[in-house]
Every structure is written in C-alpha cells, then in structure tokens.
User: Fold this.
Amino acid sequence: MGKLKQLEARVLVSIKEFGVEANHVLQGAEEHIARLVKAGFVDIEPDAVAYAKSIGSPIVALNDDGKVQGAKPADADVGAVVGARAAAMSEVATADAEVAAAEVQASAQGDAADAKAADVKA
Assistant:
C-alpha cells in the first residue's frame, strides 16, 4: 500500500478529542482532512495554513488511522469526532425545531384569544 497523500489544515474550532485548539495546524491523510473540512472543523486554504504557521501555532499530526498520538480518549479518530459533532448538531436542530413549534403554537393560541376577545366586545 502506498503512502497516503498528506494535507495541512488550520483548525477553526477546538477539537477537544484531539487536544487541538483554533489556529493549530493539523497534518494528515487527505481523506481524514477532507472529512474535517466537510464538518467545518478545519480550513485547507493555503493562506489560512500559512497564517496559523506564521503565529507559531503547534502542528499536530494525524496518523494514517485518523488518530492523534496521545489523544484522550485514545480511540478518538476523525470518524468518531465528525460523528459526535453531527449527532450534537442534530440534537440542537431538534431542540430548535421544538422551540419554534412551541412559539408558533403559543402565538396561535394568543391570536385565537385575541379574536375571541374581539368577538365578545362586538
């Protein structure tokens, strides 16, 4: 098996599972970096990576399995991190939808009460 193509990316948001903070630089296999890009964790634009390096940000390497050496938990890999973030975002979206539905229902009840009060006055 040949060597995987390696990419560098500037971390946009902390990834606690990897022990990296915003502006750190991640190096890893193209497939792993691409998943992190798609999930919004990192930016592969050359200017973004150059900026992170210019401010002396740490460079953290992902191994070919998508794991950071010494990361806690030890089984944290790109798939687990992206999956956990997607699940959390799904929970947030569900909660937002529930709040919006409750607000619509409360508004509708208020409108009905206003209409009833207007009928009583008439």
